[in-house]
């Protein structure tokens, strides 16, 4: 009787197990075929990664799966994040749903050389270019696959945020929709979803296995207990319980735990040491609740109205209370925050703003060189200040950050006779690469340290 029950039970679980295993296998295959198809897309460059791209973003990762999204993430942060965010306008437009707005066959040539697309008279491009005050987006030497992975990353990010707001649309849906419009489109970023399903299936299979084993063990014990011919040792074994104290008494387990612990501490200390002097994200509370969003955003007051020296000299000054009084002798005179300005003037003491950005003295940085001569927007380095209630340090301000930009940013040499010969020499030596700040010596130590 017992053995019959046992057999039918085990058949049932075997059937369940095979179903799940089959399901998981089918999904794995579907995913694998998806990635190979995209991975072998034409245009996967073998020339290596463009400047600024991180090592993780190797050209081989062309798929729309999690790896491509991760590669896209790194490429986006290294090349695009200074001007673009997924959900906000920074210097360029918000890129959310870009793959729905534009086919991939448009995006790729655009990123490679946007001015060529504008010059070709493409209606959408010309309109966009004018809308953004004719600001030129730099050209990028990225491969088709790399650009596709950036788009996959943007889709994944965009999907995430719409999930938060609308609660409905998933990353997978967004990716499926864009898969229709282009040849090499990132049909695979929905694969992230399959990976999740696969994981759930595997966990279910494991649970089923464990439950099956426990049931089988219990049934066997019952069967054995029914037998009369067992000797003392068999009975002892049968009734013995698992001794948990053995686990932490074991030297091997202790050794592994100690190693993990030491490694974790080491990792944390190295991270902490690397972060010394890094203050990205620093956002102190200011003595007066001054809002850039209200002044520079809503009321559109020009940055240089307050930071008067930013186009003219090395440092951008913080405005004195007198500049505030140009308006606040009339505006909001009863507000307790504005009264603080009056009090500072009465006491003849400056307002004690807390400094946010601060390079170490060993480095030389000049604002006018970048804003006036280089024509770089404040937001490229300081982020969306016009949306900040309280200012925070947007960029890392590390040496690597300065140098990466100097390597990537083409120098505006047009109409400047000083550069004519330099550009000619550069083009003779390496005509494929643009004439960047670093081509002009902008990565020489003495330019920033002396
Ligand atoms: C220096 C700033 C800057 C950088 C860096 C930059 N962009 Fe742009 N981007 C712009 C501007 C400005 C526009 C608006 C069009 C114009 O004025 O040329 C734009 C437009 C776009 C558009 C069209 C958007 C739309 O709404 O149709 C796409 C796509 C795009 N950029 C992708 C990228 C990608 C991908 C990267 C990184 C590899 C990148 N951009 C890096 C400034 C930048
Ligand atoms: C009405 C005057 C006013 C305008 C307009 C204004 N700012 Fe400011 N800004 C201030 C004041 C006051 C502070 C110091 C208090 C603070 O940090 O909020 C400041 C601080 C800053 C800081 C941080 C300085 C530090 O301590 O490191 C940055 C960066 C900055 N502004 C950039 C901008 C940019 C970019 C714009 C234009 C989009 C702008 N500001 C427009 C008044 C102004
Ligand atoms: C060009 C005009 C202008 C200048 C200069 C200016 N502000 Fe303002 N400020 C405004 C306007 C407009 C408002 C919004 C008033 C409203 O909400 O009705 C405002 C609002 C404020 C508020 C919010 C007041 C409240 O209780 O709602 C504070 C605080 C403030 N400003 C501080 C400053 C400080 C500090 C300075 C100098 C660094 C400054 N402002 C310079 C125009 C100016
Ligand atoms: C190329 C990057 C870059 C650009 C573009 C840029 N800044 Fe800065 N800004 C910095 C750095 C770096 C510092 C820190 C300087 C230091 O500590 O010596 C800084 C500091 C500041 C400060 C604090 C005062 C000071 O000079 O240390 C203000 C205010 C400021 N920037 C405003 C602006 C405004 C307004 C613009 C646009 C007109 C702008 N910045 C454009 C990189 C930039
Ligand atoms: C967003 C891009 C960007 C960032 C970030 C940036 N720079 Fe620059 N930098 C430029 C450009 C563009 C020029 C060239 C301006 C010109 O001469 O047309 C330049 C020029 C310079 C020069 C003059 C180089 C020469 O050949 O004469 C120095 C020095 C310099 N930067 C220092 C720094 C330091 C220090 C930092 C970091 C704190 C920094 N820059 C961050 C874009 C950047
Ligand atoms: C474009 C500007 C720029 C150039 C070029 C540059 N540096 Fe720096 N360097 C910086 C800035 C900004 C810092 C401070 C930020 C930091 O500590 O990361 C810095 C910091 C340093 C430090 C201190 C490191 C630390 O963590 O405090 C050393 C050492 C240094 N640089 C050496 C060099 C050498 C050597 C070269 C030439 C191969 C060089 N730098 C070229 C901008 C530059």
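Sequence proposed for the structure above (450 residues):
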């Amino acid at each position: 009787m017992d053995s019959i029950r046992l057999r039918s039970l085990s058949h049932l679980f075997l059937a369940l197990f095979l179903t799940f295993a089959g399901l998981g296998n089918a999904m794995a295959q579907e995913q694998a075929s998806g990635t190979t198809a995209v991975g072998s897309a034409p245009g996967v460059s073998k020339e290596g990664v463009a400047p600024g791209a991180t090592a993780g973003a190797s050209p081989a990762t062309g798929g729309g799966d999690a790896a491509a999204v991760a590669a896209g993430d790194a490429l986006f942060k290294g090349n695009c994040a200074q001007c673009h965010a997924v959900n906000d306008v920074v210097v360029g437009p918000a890129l959310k749903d870009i793959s729905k707005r534009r086919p991939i066959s448009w995006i790729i040539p655009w990123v490679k050389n946007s001015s060529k697309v504008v010059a070709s008279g493409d209606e959408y491009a010309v309109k966009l270019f004018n809308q953004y005050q004719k600001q030129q987006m730099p050209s990028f030497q990225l491969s088709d696959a790399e650009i596709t992975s950036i788009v996959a990353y943007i889709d994944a990010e965009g999907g995430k945020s719409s999930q938060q707001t609308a609660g409905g649309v998933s990353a997978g849906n967004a990716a499926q929709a864009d898969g229709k419009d282009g040849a090499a489109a990132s049909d695979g970023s929905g694969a992230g979803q399959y990976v999740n399903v696969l994981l759930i299936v595997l966990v279910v299979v494991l649970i089923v296995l464990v439950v099956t084993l426990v049931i089988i063990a219990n049934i066997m014990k019952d069967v054995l207990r029914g037998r009369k011919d067992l000797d003392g040792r068999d009975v002892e074994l049968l009734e013995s319980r698992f001794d948990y104290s053995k686990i932490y008494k074991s030297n091997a387990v202790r050794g592994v735990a100690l190693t993990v612990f030491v490694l974790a501490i080491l990792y944390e200390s190295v991270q902490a040491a690397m972060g010394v002097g890094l203050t990205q994200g620093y956002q102190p509370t200011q003595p007066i609740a001054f809002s850039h969003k209200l002044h520079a955003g809503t009321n559109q007051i020009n940055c240089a109205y307050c930071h008067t020296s930013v186009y003219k000299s090395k440092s951008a000054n913080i405005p004195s209370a007198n500049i505030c009084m140009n308006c606040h002798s009339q505006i909001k005179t009863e507000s307790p925050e504005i009264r603080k300005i009056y009090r500072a003037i009465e006491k003849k003491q400056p307002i004690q703003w807390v400094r946010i950005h601060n390079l170490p003295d060993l480095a030389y940085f000049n604002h006018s060189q970048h804003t006036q001569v280089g024509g770089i927007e404040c937001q490229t380095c300081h982020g969306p200040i016009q949306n900040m209630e309280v200012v925070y340090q947007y960029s890392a301000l590390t040496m690597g950050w300065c140098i990466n930009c100097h390597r990537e940013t083409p120098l505006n040499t047009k109409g400047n006779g000083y550069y004519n010969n330099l550009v000619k020499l550069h083009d003779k030596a390496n005509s494929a690469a643009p004439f960047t700040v670093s081509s002009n010596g902008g990565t020489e130590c003495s330019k920033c340290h002396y």
